[in-house]
Amino acid sequence: MQTTADLYTIEILTKDQPELIEKAAACLAKTFVGVEVGGTWIQEPIIGYALQLPYEDWYQFTKEYIETYAHQGYCAVALDNEQNVLGALVGDTNAFEIIEEDIFEGTFADMNVVMRVLADIDQRFLDDYKKRNGKDLEDGEALHIFLLGIIAEHSRHEIVQSLGDVLLNKAREEGLKLVLAEATNPKSIRVLEKYHGLTKYVDVEGNYIVHKYEDNEKLSKIPATIADGIYIVVKDL
Question: CA-based diameter of the chain, in Å?
Fold first, then answer.
């Protein structure tokens, strides 16, 4: 009988692995835009459902993100014995960069909607963090989990667990203070909570930091049964 360890291995990417970076980007792009895995349709509600961003554009964005931040050591993949990427969890240790102007054009113009939503909740988190701690969140203090995607038909939960364990353990060893993410749907929140202990962030006034889809013209088509908004989720390290 095969064990989980026989099915996959975990590797942290470096910037000098272009083939694996491309495979990781393809894995992530598929799961966000929409892909069937083992008879189940997987799709991220903003990228794939509401905005229907083109696969090639989202793949290129994801690839460039990994290429930019792989040197920090927080881009991990699960590989099978043939070096196929079964799952990827990628992040960085930069403080949130707030981008308020539209920077994307053409077929990828709706990515500006995503950036505006992120700017909204990220700025509210940064403001609250400063109130709570008396200082700004700085580069190198937090692990920002940005993208997670699994295309394995088997051992999906084990892969999520292993990918996160590798990155969170590395973050602790390097003295980071917290891990955080912008979770776009209940499934993502459940996964991050169950396997890695992240929970919805509550500000100093006792409120969740959330951007409600029903209040966004472009995202209001997302059914509440799928997701109601994008939340900041965190865990102290």
Answer: 54
Q: What is the pLDDT of residue 63?
A: 98
CA distances to 21, 64, 178 from 26, rounded to whole Å, are 9, 12, 28
Residue 216, helix vs strand vs coil: coil
End-to-end CA distance of the chain: 36
CB 153 within 8 A of CB 38: yes
Q: What is the pLDDT of residues 46-99, one digit of tens each?
A: 999 999 999 999 999 999 999 999 999 999 999 999 999 999 999 999 988 888
Provide DSSP, 117-152.
HHHHHHHHHHHHHHHHHSS---TTSEEEEEEEEE--
Contact indicator for 153, 31 with CB cutoff of 8 Å: no
Position 154 scores a pLDDT of 86
Q: Are strands 178-183 and 142-150 parallel, antiparallel or unpaired?
A: parallel
Identity of residue 202: V
Q: Provide the pLDDT for residue 2.
A: 39
The CA-CA-CA angle for residues 203, 185, 174, to 5°, reads: 60
